[in-house]
Inverse folding.
C-alpha cells in the first residue's frame, strides 16, 4: 500500500511539474514581440494594408488598354433580307408594255392593221414570261437565321481630364495612409502591452508588501498575546492586533485578485488563452530620462503616425477634388474591334474597325458641380482636422511630460519618507516591548510604512506609465524597451 501511495505521489509531482513547466516567464521585450506577432488588431490592419496595395495596382491598370472578347450564338425567327420584288414587278410591267406597243407598231407597218385584243394579250403574256425568266429576283438575305459571333474589342483611354492620374495618386495616398494606420495600431498595442505588463509588475510589488505587512502583523499579534498572558498589556491591545491581522489579510486578498485580473488583461493583449500561465519576474527600478519637453514636442510633430495619416488623407482629398474637376473636361478614348467569324457577317458589317471617341457632359442637373463643391469642402475639413490634431498632440505631450516629472519627483521624495517610517516602526516596537507604547502605535507605524512603500511603487509605476505614453505621443512607444533594460 505504501509503495502504491508513493507511486501516486511521484506521478502527481511529475505531471504537476509538467504543468508548471508550461508557465511562460516573460520579459518586457518578449511580451511586446509576442503581441506584435499574434495580436488580432495588428493582423486585421495588415489585411487592410494588403487591400490598399491591390487597390493601388488596380488604379495603375486604368492607364492600360482594356481588351475583351464578346462571343455568342443567335437564332432569329427568320433570316434578315431585303425584298425589292415590287420594283421588279414594276420593271416587268413597264418592259412588257413597251414590247406590246412595238409588236402592234410592227403589225401596222408590215400588215397594215393593228393587232387584235387576243393577239395583244398573247404578245403581252409571251413578253412577260420571257422577261420574268431573264430578270433575277429582287430579294437578298444578308443575315442567316442562325449565326455565331466573336468580336475582339479594345479601348485605350487617351485623355480623361486628369481623372486617371488623380485616381492613381488617390490610391497611392490611401496606401501610405494604411501604412500609417498599421504603424499606429502597432504603437497602440505596444503601449497597451507595456501598461498591462507594468500593472502586473506593480501588483507583484504591492502583493509582496502586503505579505510583509501581514507577517509583521502576525508577529505583533503573537507578541501581544504573550504580553497579555504576562499581564503587561490589556485585552484591547490583543483585539486591536487581531483586527489589524484581519485587515492585512483582506488587503492582501484584494490585491491578489487585482493581480489576477491584470494577468488576464496581459494575456488578452498577447492573444494567449486565459488558462496559459505566465510568470513575470521583473521589478520596478528607477531609471532617469533626461530628454527635454522641447525634444518630445519635436519628435511628436515629426513622427506621430496620426499626423502622417492625416497628411495622406489630405492628399487623398486633394485628388478627389481633381477627379471631380475632370468631369467638366472632355474624355477621349481610342477603340478598335475585330470580327473573328467573317463568314457570318452581313454585307453591311465590317471585318474590323478603329476610331476615336469623344464624350463631354453638357448638363446633368448640376450634379457634377455639387460633387466638386463637396470635394472642395472635404479638403478644407481634413486640413482643419489636421491643424486641430496637431494642437491636441502638443497638449498631450505637455500634459504627459509634466505627469511623468511629477511622478518622478514624488518617487524620489518618498525615499526619505520610507526611511523615516521604518525608523518610526522600530521605535514603536521597542516602546511596545518595553511596555511604554500601545499595540495601536505599532499597528499605525506598520500601516504608515505600508502606505509609503505602496505610494512609492505607485509613483514609479506612474512614472513609467507616463513615459511610455510620452513615447507613444512621439510616435515610438517601443523606445521604452531601451529605458527598461
Amino acid at each position: 500500500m505504501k509503495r502504491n501511495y508513493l507511486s501516486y505521489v511521484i506521478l502527481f509531482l511529475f505531471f504537476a511539474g509538467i504543468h508548471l513547466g508550461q508557465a511562460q516567464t516573460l520579459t518586457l521585450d518578449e511580451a511586446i514581440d509576442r503581441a506584435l506577432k499574434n495580436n488580432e488588431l495588428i493582423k486585421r490592419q495588415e489585411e487592410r494594408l494588403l487591400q490598399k496595395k491591390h487597390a493601388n495596382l488596380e488604379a495603375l491598370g486604368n492607364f492600360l488598354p482594356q481588351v475583351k472578347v464578346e462571343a455568342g450564338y443567335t437564332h432569329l425567327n427568320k433570316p434578315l433580307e431585303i425584298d425589292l420584288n415590287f420594283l421588279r414587278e414594276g420593271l416587268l410591267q413597264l418592259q412588257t408594255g413597251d414590247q406590246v406597243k412595238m409588236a402592234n407598231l410592227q403589225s401596222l407597218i408590215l400588215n397594215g392593221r393593228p393587232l387584235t385584243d387576243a393577239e395583244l394579250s398573247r404578245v403581252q403574256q409571251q413578253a412577260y414570261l420571257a422577261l420574268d425568266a431573264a430578270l433575277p429576283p429582287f430579294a437578298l438575305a444578308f443575315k442567316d437565321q442562325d449565326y455565331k459571333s466573336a468580336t475582339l474589342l479594345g479601348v485605350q483611354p487617351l485623355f480623361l481630364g486628369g481623372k486617371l492620374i488623380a485616381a492613381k495618386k488617390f490610391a497611392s495616398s490611401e496606401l501610405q495612409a494604411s501604412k500609417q494606420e498599421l504603424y499606429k495600431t502597432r504603437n497602440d498595442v505596444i503601449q497597451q502591452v507595456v501598461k498591462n505588463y507594468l500593472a502586473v509588475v506593480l501588483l507583484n510589488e504591492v502583493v509582496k508588501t502586503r505579505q510583509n505587512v501581514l507577517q509583521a502583523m502576525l508577529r505583533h499579534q503573537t507578541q501581544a498575546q504573550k504580553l497579555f498572558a504576562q499581564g503587561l498589556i490589556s485585552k484591547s491591545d490583543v483585539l486591536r492586533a487581531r483586527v489589524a491581522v484581519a485587515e492585512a489579510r483582506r488587503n492582501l486578498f484584494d490585491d491578489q485578485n487585482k493581480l489576477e485580473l491584470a494577468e488576464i488583461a496581459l494575456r488578452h493583449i498577447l492573444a494567449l488563452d486565459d488558462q496559459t500561465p505566465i510568470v513575470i519576474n521583473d521589478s520596478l527600478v528607477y531609471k532617469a530620462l533626461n530628454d527635454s519637453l522641447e525634444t518630445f514636442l519635436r519628435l511628436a510633430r515629426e513622427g506621430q503616425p496620426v499626423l502622417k495619416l492625416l497628411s495622406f488623407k489630405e492628399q487623398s482629398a486633394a485628388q478627389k477634388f481633381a477627379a471631380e474637376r475632370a468631369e467638366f473636361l472632355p474624355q477621349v478614348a481610342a477603340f478598335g474591334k475585330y470580327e473573328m467569324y467573317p463568314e457570318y457577317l452581313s454585307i453591311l458589317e465590317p471585318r474590323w474597325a478603329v476610331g476615336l471617341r469623344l464624350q463631354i457632359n453638357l448638363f446633368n442637373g448640376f450634379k457634377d458641380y455639387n460633387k466638386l463643391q463637396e470635394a472642395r469642402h472635404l479638403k478644407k475639413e481634413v486640413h482643419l482636422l489636421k491643424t486641430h490634431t496637431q494642437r491636441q498632440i502638443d497638449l498631450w505631450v505637455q500634459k504627459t511630460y509634466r505627469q511623468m516629472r511629477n511622478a518622478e519627483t514624488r518617487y524620489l521624495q518618498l525615499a526619505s519618507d520610507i526611511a523615516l517610517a521604518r525608523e518610526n516602526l522600530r521605535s514603536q516596537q521597542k516602546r511596545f516591548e518595553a511596555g511604554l507604547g500601545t499595540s495601536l502605535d505599532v499597528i499605525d507605524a506598520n500601516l504608515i510604512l505600508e502606505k509609503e512603500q505602496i505610494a512609492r511603487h505607485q509613483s514609479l509605476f506612474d512614472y513609467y506609465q507616463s513615459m511610455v505614453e510620452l513615447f507613444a505621443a512621439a510616435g515610438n512607444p517601443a523606445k521604452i524597451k531601451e529605458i527598461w533594460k
The first helix runs from residue 2 to 21. The chain has a mean pLDDT of 86. Strands lie at 24-25, 66-75, 80-83, 139-143, 146-159, 278-279, 331-339, 352-359. Residues 8 and 14 are 10 Å apart (CA to CA).
